[in-house]
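Ticket #4471: structure export looks truncated?
Reporter: QA, pipeline team
Priority: medium

Steps to reproduce: submit the single chain below to the structure queue and open the exported record.
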Amino acid sequence: MSGGKFDYDQYKIRMIWEVIQNELDKQGQEKQVAPWEKEYYDKYPEARFEEVYREDVQQIFKDGIEALKKAEVYAQRIDWFLSGDDGEDSLVSRLKSDLDKL
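Actual output as written to the record:
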């Protein structure tokens, strides 16, 4: 069966933490400017770069990513258990293994 109890929506958790990670990764980088935007960025050169977040905000993002990664693992493992793909023993062992990999 390979899951399905949650309509495979646990992938949405991954999408959320990947968007947050992307925001962290692109901080301070120069934006890709389309030709029709060049005039605007010539006028406002400071807008040419992605925002850099304060350290405490960055830490909140990082903590959120960690929590979401755990939530993704829990959702996946419980999904497989409730769908009949895993028994109790494999739920426990696979959950521990997946969490150890984080």
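Status: closed, not a bug. The export was complete when the record was re-opened. Leaving a note from the reviewer for reference: The chain has a mean pLDDT of 94.
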